[in-house]
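Dock uracil; give full complex structure.
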Amino acid sequence: MSALRLDRLLANLGYGSRREVQSLVRAGAVVLDGTTLTDSDMKIALAPDLPARLSVDGMPLDPLPGLTLMLHKPLGMTCSHKEAGPLVYDALPERWRRREPAISTVGRLDKETSGLLLMTDDGDLLHRIISPKRHVAKRYVATLARPLRGDEGALFAAGTLMLEGENKPLAPAVLEPLSATAARLIITEGRYHQVRRMFAAVGNHVDALHRDRIGGLELPAGLAPGGTRIMTAAEIAAIFA
Ligand code: URA
């Protein structure tokens, strides 16, 4: 189990600069196992139960690094740190946006796509989920402007479909029609605007797009648009199941 100086730990979790968290400690705001800490140099072991044992201003410590969340991304939010307008990071507690390591989205959803979006500060996990070698399947529900022709499933499954402006065919994808103008689509890649461009390649247009599953992990029915939840180890494992 690793350990960190108290001031480094609190600064990394976004509680303030090293100087600011040193004043917090001096002011008696930090309590561990019932004892007020006075020494911001002290080494703190990063035990999994630390947030339950250490409080800052009377509130449990924020989750330690190794934090993975799911967001039910609503329409209109952007997966970016910088753009104008509502960002997916606005759905997180304000302090979490100053954490080091930073929390990033695991891949992206377009501003006008809703559904399951993962966020993590664990770079290895992020790469395992988005690595093309892992073939983690992403499932989307697309609402289409025009009725399906009937040949889209075969074209998407062939592994030969080329998107405009690209020179490598798409990996096979699975289409499941839901109605004349709606379908589920399962893809294992994450190319730019991939689902919209796949339907454009077969003469259609995506009016609405929603992601409801990543690997074996479904968007929980109880997680409302805009809602976030810290993921359990079992949920993380379900991604790769
Ligand atoms: N494909 C798209 O076109 N948009 C998304 O947001 C995700 C997949």
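Observed: The longest strand covers residues 206-214.
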